[in-house]
Amino acid sequence: MNIIGVFSRSIRNLRQAQGRAASISLATAADLSITPYELHEAAAQPADVPGRMQAMARIFRVPEQFARLPRPQVQDMARQCAACPSRSRCSKALARAATAAPQDCSFCPNAVSYQNLAAD
C-alpha cells in the first residue's frame, strides 16, 4: 500500500474511533472503572491489538499469565503494540504462530514483558 493509502486508512480509523468513543458516555467509562482518556485511547487503537497481544502471548507460551495481568500493565502493553513499527513482521510471525518461537519475535516491543511473564 502506498503512503497515501496508509494515511487515508489512518484518518478513517481515527474518525471511526472518535465516533465509537463519543458514543460511550462518561458514566459508562466510570462503570468500566476507566477514565475518559483511557476510553478514548482504547477506542483509538487499532481493533486488532487485543488479538495480536493474545496471539503473541501464545507464541511466548504465557497466555494464562497474560490473562491475569493487571489492567494498567495490559494498557501499557497495548500502547506499545498499537505504536509498533514492525506490524508487517508481526503479521508474518502471527500467521505462522503454530511454529513460531519466542526468539522469532524479538522485534515485538512487548517481547521483554512476555519473557518476564515466562520467567515468573
How would you describe this protein?
Helix content is 68%, strand content 0%. The mean pLDDT is 85. Helix 4 packs across helix 6. It is mostly helical and 120 residues long.
Topology diagram in text:
Layout (H helix, E strand, L loop, with lengths): L2 H20 L3 H6 L4 H9 L4 H11 L3 H5 L3 H12 L4 H9 L15 H9 L1
How would you describe the shape? flat
**Radius of gyration, Cα only, in angstroms?**
16 Å
Distance between the termini: 41 Å
Element order: H for helix, E for strand: HHHHHHHH
> How many H/I helices?
8
Question: Based on DSSP secondary structure assignment, what is the total number of beta strands?
Answer: 0
Q: Low-confidence stretches at least 5 residues in length (pLDDT < 50)?
A: none
Share of β-strand residues: under 5%
Work out the helicity level: 55-70%
Largest pleated sheet: none
Secondary-structure content class: mainly alpha
Give average pLDDT, whole number: 85
Q: What's a quick, concise take on this entry?
A:
The chain has eight helices and no strands. The protein is mostly helical and 120 residues long.
Fill in the keyword field for this structure.
mainly alpha, flat, 120 residues, 8 helices
